[in-house]
């Protein structure tokens, strides 16, 4: 996809102001990029895309940008200081979007008018006169780098650092493999799995053929793995924690009698829209996993549990800022309870599939070990861990964990 380019310094201040607002809401307010981008002043579509691109490229490079800023001034700029935010945005534009120096300076300084203008001008001048890193140079926040090096090793942590600055490809799921193959041939994509197509250059999705007709939906290849673990002969399948429904669509397309449960009405509205667009069917259940009990057990249950989502850092780099050890521990504790609840709804001889888009073992492997220690009627049939670096040459995959458990008959 062609990245949005600024039209000129005088036209670009609104976009930078919007990018500053997004960055501030993510870094100081702990919001996701998606929610941070809502509700600001209305911008022209070009400026809106540019603001998102600048904020996104900044978040992908935060540790690297901070190291540059700290090396260029003796003054200690707090993490949430406006001067640091504006410098981060300006440097990211130069490194990742090739914005010329004069445009950077002209659009950065109005953001600190009446404030630390001289400081920002000085630091930016020093940095722009020196050698800046290449766009392909990535770094993870220190705490994440240490954690992932400790659990997965240096190679995986380095692969994650490289992946965070790379635009991920666009993965699409199809109702049938024949449709996937026909689409791949027509659009220059590659099919890496049943009913899957990967497009290397992410294009605006609405411009791709078949969008309006619901011939496909966007789904990272990793997150297609859990539904692939559901046995073909499972008649009734429950997708617990289903919304917005990528896995529900897969399960329904595979021909199972599908129920989709979630506690969030607003997210279920998106699931309903996805079913309507693709013409696929599922019974919708609005309920909390922790209080639900079905009238009769299911042949298979998929629990795609809420998690730290650290595996999705390529599309949502801000997850690495939010996923503190405390949040990861709270999330793991909840997953343990959700698993125990979902395990009751599987018929003897049936299948329970557990999944998280997390790169934290405490939300994946360790949850399954703890579950099996408590539930002697379950056994582990298979588990799959996707780490950064997998399929790197073809564009990589999100970090992921999924396990298939079988209930004794
Ligand atoms: C990882 S997302 C699910 C993504 C979805 N499976 C897909 O493929 O599109 C987790 C979902 O769990 C739901 N959720 C979280 N806690 C829940 C609970 N206690 N009961 C029911 N749903 C819950 C959230 O509303 C959210 O939609």
From TrEMBL:
Task: Give the family per the record.
Answer: Belongs to the class I-like SAM-binding methyltransferase superfamily. RsmB/NOP family.
| Keywords (A to Z) from UniProt | Methyltransferase, RNA-binding, S-adenosyl-L-methionine, Transferase
Superkingdom of the source species: Bacteria
Q: Where does S-adenosyl-L-methionine bind?
A: 241-247, 262, 288, 304
Q: What GO biological process term is on the record, naming one?
A: methylation
Q: What is the lineage of its organism?
A: Bacteria, Pseudomonadati, Pseudomonadota, Alphaproteobacteria, Sphingomonadales
InterPro entries, per this entry?
A: MeTrfase_RsmB-F_NOP2_cat (IPR049560), MeTrfase_RsmB-F_NOP2_dom (IPR001678), NusB-like_sf (IPR035926), NusB_RsmB_TIM44 (IPR006027), RCMT (IPR023267), SAM-dependent_MTases_sf (IPR029063)
User: What is the protein named?
Assistant: RsmB/NOP family class I SAM-dependent RNA methyltransferase
| Signal peptide residue numbers | none
Every SAM-dependent MTase RsmB/NOP-type domain range: 153-408
Q: Which GO terms describe its molecular function?
A: methyltransferase activity
Q: Which residues form the active site?
A: 357
């Amino acid at each position: 996809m062609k990245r949005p380019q600024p039209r000129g310094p005088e036209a670009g201040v609104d976009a930078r102001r919007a990018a500053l607002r997004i960055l501030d809401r993510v870094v100081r307010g702990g919001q996701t990029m998606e929610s941070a981008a809502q509700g600001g002043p209305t911008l022209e579509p070009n400026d809106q895309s540019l603001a998102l691109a600048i904020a996104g490229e900044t978040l992908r490079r935060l540790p690297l940008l901070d190291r540059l800023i700290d090396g260029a001034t003796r003054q200690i700029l707090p993490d949430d200081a406006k001067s640091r935010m504006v410098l981060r945005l300006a440097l990211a534009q130069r490194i990742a979007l090739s914005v010329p120096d004069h445009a950077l300076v002209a659009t950065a300084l109005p953001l600190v008018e009446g404030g630390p203008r001289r400081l920002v001008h000085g630091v930016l001048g020093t940095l722009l006169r020196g050698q800046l890193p290449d766009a392909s140079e990535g770094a993870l926040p220190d705490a994440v780098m240490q954690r992932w090096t400790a659990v997965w090793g240096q190679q995986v942590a380095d692969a994650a650092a490289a992946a965070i600055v790379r635009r991920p490809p666009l993965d699409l799921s199809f109702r049938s493999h024949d449709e996937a193959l026909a689409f791949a041939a027509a659009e220059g994509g590659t099919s890496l799995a049943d009913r899957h197509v990967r497009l290397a250059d992410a294009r605006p999705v609405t411009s791709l053929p078949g969008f309006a007709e619901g011939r496909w939906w966007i789904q990272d290849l990793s997150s297609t793995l859990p539904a692939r673990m559901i046995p073909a002969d499972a008649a009734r399948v429950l997708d617990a924690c289903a919304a917005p429904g990528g896995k529900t669509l897969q399960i329904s397309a595979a021909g199972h009698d599908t129920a989709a449960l979630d506690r969030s009405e607003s997210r279920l509205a998106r699931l309903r829209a996805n079913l309507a667009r693709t013409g696929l069917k599922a019974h919708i259940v609005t309920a909390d996993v922790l209080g639900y009990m079905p009238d009769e057990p299911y042949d298979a249950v998929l629990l795609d549990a809420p998690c730290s989502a650290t595996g999705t850092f390529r599309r949502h780099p801000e997850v690495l800022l939010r996923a503190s050890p405390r949040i990861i521990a709270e999330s793991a504790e909840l997953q343990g309870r959700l698993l125990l609840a979902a395990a009751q709804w599987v018929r003897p001889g049936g299948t329970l599939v557990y999944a998280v888009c997390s790169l934290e073992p405490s939300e994946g492997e360790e949850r399954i070990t703890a579950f099996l220690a408590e539930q002697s009627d379950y056994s582990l049939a298979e588990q799959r861990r996707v780490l950064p670096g997998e399929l790197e040459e073809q564009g990589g995959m999100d970090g992921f964990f999924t396990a298939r458990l079988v209930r004794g008959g």
